[in-house]
Amino acid sequence: MDPITHGLASFALKRGFFPRVPRPVLISILLAGIFADLDWFSGFLGPAAYLRWNGGPFHSIAGALVLATGISLSVRVYAKRRGVVLTGLLWWFAPMCAAFLHIGMDSLLSSGVKLF
After folding, report:
1. Distance in angstroms (rounded) separating the CA atoms of residues 4 and 37
2. What mean pLDDT is predicted for residues 63-67?
């Protein structure tokens, strides 16, 4: 699916399940919901790289964990520098849900994804 669809789905996830999170968490939700599509850029490295990376490691369960955790930690550090302290677990859990939503949406495509 395209990044706009994943971004809107991540925003709907935020509005439905995490309505009161601060703005840095919203940014991390949107980034975690979209970043798995970065494997699209592997097409610039040739057909073999595209076939290996598209729908592969970034769309796996482990890839979602790594991407969402990295994005969450980066946004938390950025927010702390700006004076916003993110407490609790929602700063990590909400982006994790967005990353898994991305995988779930892409697994419904006819092309599928490699989850493991």
Report:
1. 11
2. 94
In sequence order, what are the residues at sequence separation of 6 or more whose Cβ sits closer than 8 angstroms to the Cβ of residue 92? 68, 69, 72
3-state secondary structure the chain: CCHHHHHHHHHHHHHHHCCCCCHHHHHHHHHHHHHHHHHHHHHHHCHHHHHHHCCCHHHCHHHHHHHHHHHHHHHHHHHHHCCCCCCCCHHHHHHHHHHHHHHHHHHCCCCCCCCC
- Give me the half-sphere count of Cα atoms (radius 13 Å) on the Cβ side of residue 20: 2
CA geometry: angle 104, 24, 33, nearest 5 deg: 15
pLDDT in tens, 11-59: 999 999 999 999 999 999 999 999 988 888 888 999 999 888 888 888 8
User: Can you give the pTM of this predicted structure?
Assistant: 0.89
Q: What is the dihedral of CA 34, 17, 63, 52, to 10 degrees?
A: -50
